[in-house]
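Reviewer 2 asked us to include a model.

Predict the structure of this chain.
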Amino acid sequence: MNPRLSIVVPFYNVEPYIGACLDSLARQTFRDFEVVLVDDGSRDGSAQIARTFCDQDPRFRIVTQENQGLGPARNTGVQHSQGEYLTFVDSDDLVSRHAYDLMIRSLDETASSLAAGNARRFNNTSGVRQSYVHRIPFAKDRPATHVFDYPALALDRMVWNKVYRRSFWDQFRFAFPAIRYEDYPVTLRGHIEAITVDCISAPVYYWRERESGESITQQKFQYANLHDRVTSAEMVFDLIDKRAPELRAEVHRHLALTDMATVVQAFATAPEDELRPLLELGRRLSRRLDQDLLGDVRTFERLQYYALQTGDVELLQRLARFRAEGGLAGGARAQRNPVLPWQYENRYPGLHGHSGVPSRVYRLPREELALRTRASEITWTPDELVISGTAEIAHVPTENRSSLRISLISGGRRFRLPVQRRPGRDTHGEERLVDWTTRVPRSLLAEVPPKGAHLSVDFRNGHLRRRGPLTRTLAGNVSHPAGQRVGDAWIQPTWAGDGRLMLRRLVDQPELATVEFTADELVFTGRLPAELVDPELRLTRSSGYIRVPLDLRADGTGAAFTARIRLDDLVDEENADDPFTGRTHRVPSIYHDDGSRRRLLLITGLDHAVTTVHHGRMLSVTRSPGMFANLGEAPVRIVVDRIESPTDGTSSTLVVSGPQWPGVTYDGLVWRRFRPNSDDAIDVPCRVKVDGSRWVAEADTADLLLPADGEDGTPDWTLFASDDGTPYAVQTEPFLLSRLPATLIGDGRRGLLQSRAGTLHLETS
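Predicted model (structure tokens):
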């Protein structure tokens, strides 16, 4: 009897990764599948690892061929597949345990032609984070939609986050071309030809980013790679022109900002004999791009396009090197036009010194001279909410005579706030008057309306004036601000979807007051608002939920509750949602009105995580960015919950610490950075002390803030530990994130301690 799902996995020289990939498939909660492994002429130990899986599990079988490339290998796998459904996996990636359960269940319900899900990127250094290209298409569930109804799906260019009906695949005779970047022509045509498509917001696929830079997508500046990339783009252009002109703007803009930018950036390192072929490649691509899109791109992209069109190789090289050396960091500096002083020009290579380039190409549009802000610290005093950050206008240096006003916008009214300004380091690394602190009195916060309030920034620099909301347009924002009760409401600073810092007013919210782990139970206590009908607690995850009965005690204004959850019900190591970290996050929520409505549990009684170890797994109740409860289950590993950084340069030691757990090795803690495009790392070992309940790790700031001998540049570090010889990046406890980022100063240099995708990093400047 044929399986319901065929999983095609081509592989070629992926010995370090293929075992983890196939293990993530063997652990799928959807069991009725076959794995067709296509050995595309591997010369390392990959085939032996694959055969081991075939020997252990009859659902795995292997097909061998001479090396032909990823596209033909996938086609071979399709020819040997027998399932009702079809999917593809790259052999260095991972698949979430519930991925095929979610997608096939959706297809069974909707009868769509294909289902596609969200994706995460991951590696040892940066942890797990949202895949940039999938963030918009899969922001929420959209069953039975279509690319013509939801054009963002035109950017869903990868094949591996999808399950196709085999009948649909065969009907349209889909096949991968024998080039790299073979996905996009196939996936876009699939979206166009489909009757409907199911979009699933849960992450179904984990896309590896190798430190060594060896994958196809990471070898992007090699000429052969770029040639295939342009060929793939031309196939997409042809498809759009013939079958979907209504998607033209979406696709052309995407290719201009990704593929075109990559081709131009290759001029920074291209050898002399590849310059002319690379120029022709870029011109092939640029000629196909919609000319009307040039009005939407930044000055730098417009200048690159001009250099391509005119065949100016020298300018292309200078622009690419300028970018590679960080010239665009913070937005390149601008200057006034010497003839028309009310206009600005970007100070890019060639300005007023490169023959043949008209000055209009360098002209800086008004919209690029935009307000750039951050909120780097948010704290509470008994009387005020204190917010500190930076503000500047992109591209222009901030003058000492500039002015800054900050107001609270609340209930349609504007309240002027006090502002203290001081010098700080701007986006170009210069000491300028960009830092500020403002204070919001609790008396104002008590009047915040149900829709919340936000801060408005009015900045004047010379004759330029910009006004807008306080947003996280610059890096280095505090990601998990703390909230507090003000009067009868909870005021929670949080980042809205549009990037604004919002002060949300939360009333009549289910509240979590205490958390306790006993020997075999997790006990919650809290309060529920009076209007909730038939409330119940559910612990939800991507693959389902656990129902928890509530013990309610009415008191006139609501009800106090107690909930008890068996720890055995929470431990699910075999089916962790995240196949890379082995973690599962459950969200405690109160469902009411026959389960039709849901409210999150606001943490009002905790200022730190509550954690225990049960059956070799770590269970932790902590907070989300919006101060709601999260329940995590993970391997027992090191977690940082405290940092003592010498922010004033008076100490030469960086100290990090956290809770100590039995059976965990602490003496292998190191600050690590990887050499460019390599798996080789440089380590700075920590001096570690363990006192029975906590561990403390110290490192000298001079070792972290100064470049290593014989190396240029400024190093960026990740805190690493080891589990039975396997290195992993150390996680930051979410409550700690309300105190990050933190500036590290020593030996005349500085760094920024912050969490990136949940792991602790030190970024130096």
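The radius of gyration is 28 Å. The domain at 371-506 is CATH 2.60.40.10 (Immunoglobulin-like). We have added this to the supplementary material.
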